[in-house]
């Protein structure tokens, strides 16, 4: 018996709308119309412990495969550059491409405030699914999409054509300038960035907007919509969404050697490291130490600065937590100071934070409560 994918798409759209009643009907209609199965290919990865196992459409069976595809979940399609269809067995590594869960796609697009007449530059074509959602809502002639990975770009183009959409597609670095995207009304990124690329500012029309997730090497992220003002600077506030996208490849953390503790200065920690488990708390810590990565050990959390090799590691005894700091940067001092500032403000959620980007994009600041309040500069 052939599975009715139309019914599955409608069911998925209804499920997402029920969970998010504020979803605009145009995005509901796009979810119900775009055939997600076209964009997932014939294999995805399924996590099994520390490994990723390829799951093939033929082995799973058509009906079960289509039901899997039409669930509100992220389907990982590539691990460290290896496509699931090419994997012959379990692999280790990190996801480098996925079919993002549909609810996250439309939450991001709704946050962009699109009304239906804008020219949109999408950064991160990926499988092409989010591009198809945009085409359904805006019309393919208003959509320009760029993908860094040439293999993904070629497959996305084929998927989009099969689904009946032919937007303008670019293979290249989405953090650089592309003439096809000049004078766009909105940039929408389906990848995360550590700071706003200058090219995004330069290619916007007057009063255009940028919607992206701001993230870093502690993998704490916030969704924000920035709008250009009359001077060419951009401003905006973060939404309440606790969401994450993969970092844009040029912004990814460079490879690092195994962690080895280095003895240094030791003192009692003034704050509980458990604050780093709080979404907004980790976001604040990332602002204070933008080139540091966060790791977890059996003894406690560890901060290691990718640029300088500085480290801060924690231990606990019957008297509380201690922090050990080594290297030119006192990572825990910086993080602790920022977390204290956040706590003194009432430990608010991400909606209390905003961001300002100068007209040249050379100065980028995240602030708490208002632009004149506590502020942190991004690593432009």
Separation, N- and C-terminal Cα atoms: 55 Å
**Class based on secondary structure composition and strand pairing:** alpha+beta
Number of helices: 10
CATH architectural type of the largest domain: 3-Layer(aba) Sandwich
Q: Can you tell me the number of structural domains?
A: 2
Low-confidence stretches: none
Percent range for helical residues? 25-40%
- Percentage beta strand: 25-35%
CATH topology of the largest domain: Rossmann fold
Q: Can you identify the CATH superfamily of the largest domain?
A: Vaccinia Virus protein VP39
- Largest pleated sheet: 10 strands, mixed
What is the level 1 CATH name of the largest domain? Alpha Beta
DSSP, total strands:
20
Strand order of the largest sheet: 8-7-6-9-10-11-12-18-19-20
Chain-averaged pLDDT? 94
Can you tell me the overall shape? globular
Reading the helices and strands in chain order gives: HHEEHHEEEHEHEHEEHEEEEHEEEEHEEE
EC number: 2.1.1.77
Main location: cytoplasm
Protein name: Protein-L-isoaspartate O-methyltransferase
GO molecular function: protein-L-isoaspartate (D-aspartate) O-methyltransferase activity
What report would you give on this structure?
- This protein is α+β, with helices and mostly antiparallel strands.
- The chain has 2 domains: 5-237, 3-Layer(aba) Sandwich (Rossmann fold), CATH 3.40.50; 265-344, TATA-Binding Protein.
- Helices cover 26% and strands 29% of the residues.
- It has 10 helices and 20 strands.
- It has helices spanning 5-19, 25-33, 57-60, 62-69, 102-111, 129-138, 150-163, 198-202, 279-288, 331-344; strands spanning 43-48, 51-56, 75-79, 82-83, 95-99, 120-123, 143-147, 168-171, 184-193, 204-214, 222-228, 234-237, 265-268, 292-296, 301-305, 311-317, 320-326, 353-357, 364-368, 375-377.
- It has a 10-stranded mixed beta sheet, sandwiched between helices.
- A hairpin with a 5-residue loop joins strand 15 and strand 16 (311-317).
- The longest helix has 15 residues, at 5-19.
- The protein is globular and about 60 Å long.
- The N and C termini lie far apart (55 Å).
